[in-house]
């Protein structure tokens, strides 16, 4: 399976690219927006492709040409204003969904945020971020794509544990970014997770066992 990773230079994106490159069943196109980011990803064994979420749907679709799946891991980050949250986390995500449809790519994995589907549980301090995630997820659910929406809790730069909790509703928790990347790989391999959405935090079950309860 040839996978386009959108946001390949982000923290989860870099971990995901590494895991996919090392996996015998995957090849990777790594979408980045800066020329200087390409060399590093090429050295890892990915095929870097230059495209911006500020650009056109056609531009993103061209970057995805030849792929079987798209993983959206991009985010505006905590250092930008809510205008960029709107442009990247909402419009950028929707453009990527439209690009998948245009390119005839059916499989789509979205990295969202814990409880993005429940307005009552949004963090008031970053409410526009949750609004963006909520409506991007809803747009994906209403598309014709074979989606999986993964909603991780607070993200940690700690060593992976390989143990998670995954469920429709989890009201708090954290998870290492590397474990999120591993769950994305597992989701790409598991057709039972098609048209499924779930919250994700660290837990006590193996990734394989935890995801069985979702599918």
Question: What topology emerges from the helices and strands here?
Answer:
Layout: E1 2-6, H1 11-22, E2 27-32, H2 38-44, E3 47-50, H3 57-63, E4 69-72, H4 82-103, E5 107-111, H5 127-141, E6 146-152, E7 154-156, E8 163-167, E9 174-176, H6 177-189, E10 196-202, E11 205-206, H7 207-212
Parallel strand pairs: 1-2, 1-4, 2-3, 4-5, 5-6, 6-10, 7-9
Antiparallel strand pairs: 8-10, 8-11
Helix pairs in contact: 1-6, 3-4, 4-5
What key attributes describe this structure?
single chain; 215 residues; alpha/beta; 9-stranded mixed sheet; two-stranded parallel sheet; 7 helices; 11 strands; 38% helix; 24% strand
Largest beta sheet, briefly?
A: 9 strands, mixed
Strand content: 15-25%
Order of helices and strands: EHEHEHEHEHEEEEHEEH
Overall pLDDT level: 96
Concise summary:
The chain is α/β, with parallel strands linked by helices and 215 residues long.
Would you kindly provide a written description of the structure presented here, covering whatever features stand out?
The protein is α/β, with parallel strands linked by helices and 215 residues long. Strand 2, helix 2 and strand 3 form a beta-alpha-beta unit. The strands form 2 sheets. It has a 9-stranded mixed beta sheet with strand order 3-2-1-4-5-6-10-8-11, with helices on both faces. The two termini are 21 Å apart. The longest helix has 22 residues.
């Amino acid at each position: 399976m040839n996978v386009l990773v959108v946001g390949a230079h982000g923290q989860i994106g870099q971990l995901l690219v590494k895991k996919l490159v090392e996996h015998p069943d995957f090849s990777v196109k790594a979408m980045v927006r800066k020329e200087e980011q390409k060399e590093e990803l090429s050295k890892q064994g990915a095929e870097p492709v230059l495209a911006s979420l500020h650009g056109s749907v056609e531009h993103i679709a061209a970057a995805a040409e030849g792929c079987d799946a798209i993983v959206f891991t991009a985010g505006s980050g905590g250092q930008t204003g809510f205008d960029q949250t709107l442009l990247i986390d909402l419009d950028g995500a929707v453009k990527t969904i439209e690009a998948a449809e245009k390119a005839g790519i059916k499989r789509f994995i979205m990295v969202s945020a814990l409880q993005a589907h429940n307005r009552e549980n949004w963090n008031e301090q970053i409410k526009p971020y949750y609004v963006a995630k909520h409506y991007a997820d809803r747009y994906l659910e209403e598309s014709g794509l074979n989606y999986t929406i993964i909603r991780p809790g607070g993200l940690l730069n700690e060593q992976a544990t390989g143990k998670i909790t995954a469920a429709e509703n989890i009201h708090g928790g954290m998870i290492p970014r590397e474990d999120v990347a591993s769950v994305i790989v597992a989701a790409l391999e598991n057709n039972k997770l098609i048209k499924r959405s779930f919250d994700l935090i660290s837990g006590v079950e193996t990734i394989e066992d935890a995801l069985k309860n979702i599918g």
